[in-house]
Task: structure prediction
Amino acid sequence: MRQFVGLVLSRVQKSDGCWEWSGARTKAGYGLVKVGGRKGKNLYTHRTVAAALIGEIPPGYYVCHRCDNPRCCRPDHLFIGTPADNNWDKSRKGRAVGPGLRGELVPSAKLKAKDVVAIREQLRAGRKGKDIAASFGVSPTTISSIKLGKRWKQ
Result:
């Protein structure tokens, strides 16, 4: 990939902030460069720059953006990380959706941490799960999962 970094950087708009790719992009906004002619291979621009200027990208590793700009190719905005590193980074920045999130950070969560504390107090006081569920607008199964530690683990 080192041989293609010049091609990539020639199509990047450099600034004091991000260095943005000005060519073709994926639907998610990541830069693409085709190498090897019509039937050539598409390379992600940020991965091409990282491989050439940061170091080898081990199989299964990602090139992550500190700036969260998928068009950015600026080497000091990029870092090589595992899928777990990438998920942690997204979660820390509030951009993650899915299994990496917990509790009220899950976009579809109906309960807040303070609600779960109140639910546990009501369960300890002997209130029925179906009554608690109705008062919080959730299913009795959700209350049972909280009680059993399957959801909202302590």
Remarks:
- The longest strand covers residues 32-35.
- The mean pLDDT is 87.
- The longest helix spans residues 113-124.
